Amino acid sequence: DAGVTQSPTHLIKTRGQQVTLRCSPISGHKSVSWYQQVLGQGPQFIFQYYEKEERGRGNFPDRFSARQFPNYSSELNVNALLLGDSALYLCASSWTWEETQYFGPGTRLLVL
Amino acid sequence: QKEVEQDPGPLSVPEGAIVSLNCTYSNSAFQYFMWYRQYSRKGPELLMYTYSSGNKEDGRFTAQVDKSSKYISLFIRDSQPSDSATYLCAMSNQGGKLIFGQGTELSVKP
After folding, report:
1. CA of B86 vs chain A CAs: smallest distance (Å)
2. Is A25 left (phi over 0), alpha (psi -120 to 50) or beta?
């Protein structure tokens, strides 16, 4: 069975640009969560979606937004990129919002 | 003060050694405790999942949770070079949002 997939794997953007990251959950999983992992740190929670509804939001500015589609895939959008947004962006899926989360390989974003 | 504290290491041990990794936390509402392993430039991989206090064993790995002390541990027996990775503790109060430690970088030398 395929695990969580994310695209693209790597991305280079310049300050002020906008970026969209994509995630496909494990088949049957209805919840997707997004995390940001800065080099040398643990992942930090950004959003969780379950059945297309936002279940939780972390302490991130409004430049970060996300949505979940009817097929349970998800997109994370970041506007007005800052140098500090450079990180590994991880998507995790689970059966429901409270079940064990399984992570994808991440999208590595570099903002120049 | 961070909600979850984890010694970042790095930790270097010889092959075959017993490894002890630890996290402390401040939020007494946490009930779900996890250990993830993350290889370089990869996503975290779930190793152990524990609900509330107690021990859980899976092969060479043992997870312990002491809620009274707000302290969790992961023990790796007979460590192998393939165990070289960053180990992340994570916890939550009712599922959903996971709070991670900083991660401990482990190197097992042949």
Report:
1. 10
2. beta
Longest dimension (CA), chain A: 38
Out of B90, B94, B101, closest to residue A98 by CB: B94
How many whole angstroms separate alpha carbon A42 and alpha carbon B95?
18
Helix/strand/coil percentages in chain A, nearest 5? 5, 50, 45
AA letter at A67 = R
Nearest to B101 among A42, A58, A103 (CB): A42
pLDDT tens-place string over residues B81-101:
999 999 999 999 877 899 999
Q: Which residues pair with B38 in a beta bridge?
A: B86
List Cβ<8 Å contacts ≥24 apart for A96-99.
A96/A30, A96/A31, A96/A50, A96/B95, A97/A31, A97/A48, A97/A50, A97/A55, A97/A56, A97/B95, A97/B96, A98/B94, A98/B95, A98/B96, A99/A31, A99/B95
pLDDT tens digits, residue range B49-60? 998 888 999 999
Q: Within a 10 A sphere around the Cβ of B75, how many other Cβ atoms?
A: 17
Is A68 near chain B, with CB under 8 Å? Answer: no
Q: Cβ distance A105 to B44 under 8 Å?
A: no
